[in-house]
Design goal:
Largest sheet: none
Structural class: mainly alpha
Number of helices: 8
Shape: globular
Radius of gyration: 19 Å
Strand content: under 5%
Distance between the termini: 61 Å
Helix content: over 70%
């Protein structure tokens, strides 16, 4: 990868083509998980690739390229959301998470798993502010470590840990409330 980056820094278009093929899906998935809007994620992917092309000289070769890529993607996404009057709402569409293999159980179990994933994404959308949501997306949907997230977002690792903690508290609280109401409704039938 280092050789490809060096080629890109010299203006080699084939190198950028390789970067695009390698990372466009990752960029799109990250943008989509933050915005839940496929069209906006397409635009963000294009803007991120253009930003990489025009600013590759700012990349510090001693740092992992993926961290820089995530930082650029997150910043471009943040700017795109600001352009939309700060609205952070997510459009209800199919998630890229569902492209991943799901255990080949019965069709009912597969549907139930998809519905559960969709519900989790909806709860993340409804309950978590942007700064907490982005940490959850990077950790649980992109697989970054807490240290990598701190590097991408340019915040202390303690901030990352606190945001993860806050997200889990909010999500657990919401799940407990729903269980309570479901249990109460079942006993009153």
């Amino acid at each position: 990868m280092k050789e490809i980056i060096e080629r890109c820094m010299r203006g080699d278009m084939e190198g950028f083509g390789f970067l695009f093929k390698t990372y466009s899906k990752t960029i799109h998935q990250t943008a989509y998980l933050i915005t839940r809007n496929n069209t906006l994620a397409d635009d963000i992917t294009q803007e991120t690739i253009i930003h990489l092309f025009t600013n590759i000289h700012h990349y510090k070769v001693q740092q992992p390229f993926e961290n820089w890529l995530y930082r650029v993607t997150v910043n471009v996404t943040k700017n795109a959301l600001r352009k939309q009057n700060g609205i952070l709402g997510w459009k209800r569409t199919d998630s890229l998470l569902f492209d991943k293999e799901i255990d080949h159980n019965t069709p009912e179990e597969i549907l139930q798993q998809k519905e559960m994933k969709s519900e989790v994404l909806d709860q993340i959308t409804k309950l978590l502010p942007y700064k907490i949501r982005i940490v959850i997306v990077l950790k649980y949907f992109n697989g970054l470590s807490q240290e990598e997230i701190a590097n991408v977002l340019n915040v202390p690792i303690g901030t990352v840990k606190w945001r993860i903690h806050q997200a889990l508290i909010k999500l657990r609280s919401k799940l407990n409330q729903e269980r309570y109401f479901r249990k109460g409704a079942a006993t009153h039938e």
